Automatic annotation (TrEMBL):
Keywords assigned: Membrane, Peptide transport, Protein transport, Transmembrane, Transmembrane helix, Transport
Subcellular location: Membrane
Name the record gives this protein: MFS transporter
GO cellular component terms attached to this protein's record: membrane
NCBIfam families linked: yjdL_sub1_fam
Family under the similarity heading: Belongs to the major facilitator superfamily. Proton-dependent oligopeptide transporter (POT/PTR) (TC 2.A.17) family.
């Protein structure tokens, strides 16, 4: 193993503990402390809004971090300086525990810092290998993956206890200390790392080819693709004009979605016009990316459901009974936020189970577990998990006392969906995109997570509308239960559309045949990569 790798792995373990340490107690802290000025009826909704706005930032800022690293500062410098911003954000959370603006500023700094380094650390690991030692890369990435889950598990288990017993200053301060340690460890390995310099601008990049396709004129022909992109731009302006009514985050994110959606359609309509001005590989690469974006768009509902386990599901768990448990003579009760520790444990169990048992069994009975089949099934599993959580909520709304342990079943179903979707998504995308376009894929994957959380904000705001509230009242369900079944239906509907698209999708094989080692790391909720 290259001697610099332990520094990166130790850095990742401390950073993941710091991130999940604060993230997994954010909703309980908002509900119990920071948002006490909000009326009780609106407090859960406001806590969800704050949480998912934060997650949107975490997965939006990788665009900035990746661009700065690739074009200007390199991976090491970008990771180091964004890590210092990250530490400052943790400090703000610990210091401004009772100051709304100070605390929110800390959340912004953490989203900015963690998002900035998110796409870089796993890629930085890949930079440390070449043809002479690439055979050891899998071992290192396995360790990298394990340390992510290790940090997530113990953060989910311990930090709710610190919040309960020692208060928010200590509970948010400990993750800050861990992030400071992570930054120090990363700095200590500086002279041992292999530093790959930023690349020169690529004339055949995705954005260059797309711009050429939209702007190119042909004699006697109009530019329908440019007009389509213009419609998206006008829609984006209209969305931004709704900022006073919708809020900046919803308006800005929806504007981005409109620009990407209509711009992508426009590029596909005129893509052949880029031939001759760009290489054939580049043009076909853009076509491949556009096809992949359709898949990513249909994965956004999964992220809507998955990320709410740290918001909506905690809100539900707060109203559930936590029985006294006894394990080897140790008696304890589970805190609502501790239920999230189930996820990393199940991930570590399900991935080897799927690879060693489930997938071979499927092949044995004649069903090939293709990436698209796995992803479609994963989206459906997420929808089913929300049917189960909704049924639990109906029992609670009827006045029944329900144990928090009933959440284990939907957690298991949702985690199975995570393994099928997230651990497969980038594997699929990297296999379909030509080598020059593989970098842009990771950026779009993070944007899919951002858009998934945008749907949560929109639904959360929608149920406050008088007409929507009146409709929910006629359904005979409470607001929370109605939202749960709505998201379940959303995911299951998209899973059906996904299955139809998968039948028509023609797979290609763009894995590397030769040349320098190139590594990717599958993304899940715990930043895989």
């Amino acid at each position: 193993m290259p001697r610099q790798i332990p520094y990166i792995i130790a850095n990742e373990g401390c950073e993941r503990f710091s991130f999940y340490g604060m993230r997994n107690i954010l909703t309980p802290f908002l509900l119990s402390t920071l948002l006490l000025f909000v009326p009780m009826a609106d407090r859960a909704s406001e806590a969800k809004h704050v949480f998912h706005t934060f997650v949107i930032g975490v997965y939006f800022f990788p665009l900035l971090g990746g661009w700065l690293a690739d074009r200007w500062f390199g991976k090491y410098n970008t990771v180091f300086w964004f890590s210092l911003i990250y530490v400052a954000g943790h400090a703000c959370l610990a210091i401004f525990e009772d100051n709304l603006k100070g605390f929110y500023f800390g959340l912004f700094l953490i989203a900015f810092g963690s998002g900035g380094i998110k796409p870089l650390v796993a890629a930085f690991v890949g930079d440390q290998f070449d043809q002479t030692n690439k055979n050891r890369a899998k071992l290192v990435y396995d360790a990298f993956y394990w340390i992510i889950n290790f940090g997530s598990f113990f953060a989910s288990l311990l930090m709710p206890v610190f919040l309960r017993d020692y208060g928010p200053a200590v509970a948010f301060g400990i993750p800050g200390i861990l992030m400071a340690v992570a930054t120090l460890v990363f700095w200590l390995g500086k002279r041992k790392y292999i530093h790959v310099p930023p690349a020169a601008p690529n004339p055949n990049s995705f954005s260059s080819v797309a711009r050429t396709a939209l702007m190119s004129k042909q004699p006697g022909q109009s530019r329908p693709g440019l007009m389509m992109a213009g419609v998206g731009a006008l829609g984006a302006v209209a969305s931004l004009c709704m900022t006073p009514q919708w809020g900046f985050v919803i308006a800005a994110c929806l504007a981005l979605v409109l620009v990407l959606a209509f711009g992508g359609i426009g590029v596909s309509m005129q893509l052949d016009r880029a031939r001759g001005l760009h290489s054939e590989e580049a043009v076909e690469g853009v076509r491949s990316v556009l096809r992949i974006l359709i898949v990513f768009a249909m994965v956004t509902p999964f992220h809507s459901l998955f990320d709410q386990k740290a918001s909506t599901w905690i809100v539900q768990a707060n109203a559930m009974n936590s029985p006294l448990l006894n394990i080897f003579g140790w008696e304890f009760t589970l805190l609502p936020a501790q239920m999230q520790a189930v996820n990393p444990i199940l991930v570590m169990l399900l991935i080897p189970f799927n690879n060693l048992a489930l997938y071979p069994l499927m092949r044995f009975i004649g069903i090939t577990p293709t990436p698209l089949r796995r992803m479609g099934t994963g989206i459906a599993m997420a929808g089913i998990s929300w049917i189960v959580i909704g049924m639990i909520q109906l029992q609670m709304d009827a006045g029944d006392k329900v144990s928090i342990l009933w959440q284990l079943l939907p957690y298991a179903l949702l985690t199975l969906g995570e393994v099928l979707v997230s651990a497969t998504g980038l594997e699929f995308a990297y296999s379909q995109a030509p080598a020059p376009m593989k970098g842009i894929i990771l950026s779009f994957w993070y944007l899919a997570i951002t858009v998934g959380n945008l749907w949560v904000l929109i639904v959360n705001a929608g149920v406050k509308n008088d007409a929507v509230s009146a409709y929910i009242a006629t359904s005979g369900m409470g607001v929370i239960a109605f939202q749960m079944f709505f998201f379940a239906a959303f995911a299951l509907l998209v899973a059906a559309v996904f299955a139809l698209y998968a039948i028509r999708y023609k797979m290609v094989d763009n894995y590397r045949n030769e040349g320098p080692a190139s590594f990717c790391y599958p993304e899940t909720e715990k930043d895989k990569p």
